[in-house]
Amino acid sequence: MTERPPGATSATEWARIARRRRVLVWSGAGLAVVAVVAAVLFLLLTGGNDGGDPATFDPVDRGAESSATTSGTDATSGAEPTSHPGASSGTTGSANPTATPGAQGTCRIAYRRAGVLYVADPDGSDEVRAAASVEGAFSIAPDGRTLALVDATTGTLALYDLATGARVAVGPANQEMPVWPVSSAWVVYSTGSGSGARVLRVDRDGRNAKTLFTGGEAAVSPDGAVVCGIAHAPSGASSVVVYHGGRAASLPVAGYATDVACSSTRVFYSLAGDDGADSSIRSMSLDGGDVLTIRTGPQAGSRVSFQDLCLKPDGTRVAFTEAGDDGYSRLFVMGVDGGGSRTLSVRRDDYPMCWGCDGRLYFIEGNAIQGEATKLMGVGADGTGRVVIVEGASR
């Protein structure tokens, strides 16, 4: 992999790259887990072990899963405290057996390691096992009480109450990170593809699912007043869709849109480059006016696009990546006016998990597709205070 992927790319090819990259990134962790499982099985078979059940590596147990379309929820076993062998030095490295994650609305983070989703304190301590999951998009509510997971095996969104262990299956969902407002009262996700793609909102208990608009790549303003997304026409033309005040408006943009984020007053979106223009990040008002270009041209060359736009909850900074095929991903942060841009990657691929409840930006460093070791990192909003939180973590 080179630092500057060569060659211009058409809008049609960008669509293929985006789909391919999403599958590669979310499956990279799965490939790493398969390798770990194989190693464990080899040790068990050659070391005379009695071959006990390696429950840590099991996929999500869907045996008694309830559905949001039926009454009630199914309470399974509660969140399970575990040891924390992957914590970086400087953390406690142990779970608190009396902890009830999210019970008091505490600040928590979520990550995947060795086929299991965990939640923990922002420094990686008090780690608690939340769900078995080899791969699939996930996110934790800002108040730390609910985990949203799109299981890669079934393609179903499930919501986990981290205090009780109750799990509710919501329905089919795309492999895109579910997004929450700061209130954590509901979550937004997408389902379907092409003209059948839809963005939906569902309450945190799995009830009252509602279609907001046609499109995908959903984002939510921190205050929950605006939901935005992207719709692509068969011709390749793109529109940014804004849901505000109970109405959805489709706003055509001048290029192929690759990602979107929104505040209560503006929409931020990225456009792929083509033979006549560089990739760019732009912003506009909710009615499509006052269009501003805040970033033009990636550092890595023409065969990457701006992806993973993520707005800081206070609306002051936006994180993004320069992303290409085969998992290439360099992480940046800048002010919403384009000023104060900082490079957060040090010649390694980084994959943002967005801003945490403590104001830090969390991301996975290391390209699992290329066989690199991965780790969960945290960094301050100004790009300082870069720290390893959990070794071996992935998204």
Radius of gyration: 20 Å
Order of helices and strands: HEEEEEEEEEEEEEEEEEEEEEEEEEEEEE
- Counting DSSP H or I runs of 4 or more residues, the number of helices is 1
Strand content: 35-45%
State the helical fraction: under 10%
Shape: globular
Which secondary structure elements does this structure contain, and how are they paired or packed?
Layout (H helix, E strand, L loop, with lengths): L10 H36 L19 E2 L6 E2 L4 E2 L27 E5 L2 E5 L7 E5 L5 E3 L5 E6 L4 E6 L4 E7 L13 E6 L6 E6 L6 E5 L1 E5 L5 E7 L5 E7 L2 E6 L4 E6 L3 E6 L8 E6 L6 E5 L8 E7 L5 E7 L5 E7 L6 E2 L6 E6 L5 E5 L9 E5 L7 E5 L4
Parallel strand pairs: 1-10
Antiparallel strand pairs: 2-10, 3-6, 4-5, 5-6, 7-8, 8-9, 9-10, 11-12, 12-13, 14-15, 15-16, 16-17, 18-19, 19-20, 20-21, 22-23, 23-24, 24-25, 26-27, 27-28, 28-29
Detailed description of the structure:
The chain is built from one helix and 29 strands. It is mainly beta and 395 residues long. The strands form seven sheets. Strands 1, 2, 7, 8, 9 and 10 form a six-stranded mixed beta sheet that branches. A hairpin with a 2-residue loop joins strand 16 and strand 17. The longest helix is centred in the first third of the chain and has 36 residues, at 11-46.
Notable characteristics:
38% strand; 395 residues; globular; disordered N terminus; 1 helix; 9% helix; mainly beta; 6-stranded mixed β-sheet; 4-stranded antiparallel β-sheet; 29 strands
Entry summary:
The protein has one helix at residues 11-46, and strands at residues 66-67, 74-75, 80-81, 109-113, 116-120, 128-132, 138-140, 146-151, 156-161, 166-172, 186-191, 198-203, 210-214, 216-220, 226-232, 238-244, 247-252, 257-262, 266-271, 280-285, 292-296, 305-311, 317-323, 329-335, 342-343, 350-355, 361-365, 375-379, 387-391. It is mostly beta strands and 395 residues long.
